[in-house]
Amino acid sequence: MSAPATDDQPATVESAAGLDFAPWSAEDLAGLPGAKQWINDASVFYLAVRISASLLGKTKAEMVELVETQETDTVIEMLERIESAIDAYSVILKLLEAAQARLIVAGAAAAQRAGARS
């Protein structure tokens, strides 16, 4: 069996196929938001993304001026919306990365199995 992947070297089919994982527990999966919650949160997240995109198009001087000219509560609300979206998207990212990794491992194992049959 090949050595596992490192930061310096990518995984091989053999090393990926040799990995194992357990299903997420029902408790972990039960903690995921349902469709209705995703739909409700989407508009909140969209606003945070639009705020972020707008801020990223500004120079430091423009950002300083924005902070100086806006009500403190408005600036705090923008920051809180962005922080809330970061927290929520971190959960989503973890879910997507876990599923991606499992598909890669399963694909590598299937490729190995197909090679063994031919």
What does this structure look like?
- The chain is elongated.
- Helix 3 packs across helix 5 (72-117).
- Helices cover 75% and strands 0% of the residues.
- The chain is an all-alpha fold and 118 residues long.
- The protein has 5 helices and no strands.
- The protein has one domain.
- The chain has helices at residues 13-17, 26-30, 35-56, 60-69, 72-117.
Report strand %. under 5%
How many domains in all?
1
What is the share of helical residues? over 70%
How far is the first residue's CA from the last residue's CA? 20 Å
Q: Give the integer mean of the pLDDT values.
A: 88
Key features?
elongated, 118 residues, mainly alpha, 75% helix, 5 helices, single chain
What would you say about this model in short?
It contains five helices and no strands. It has 118 residues and is mainly α.
Q: How are the secondary structure elements laid out?
A:
Blueprint: H1 13-17, H2 26-30, H3 35-56, H4 60-69, H5 72-117
Helix pairs in contact: 3-5
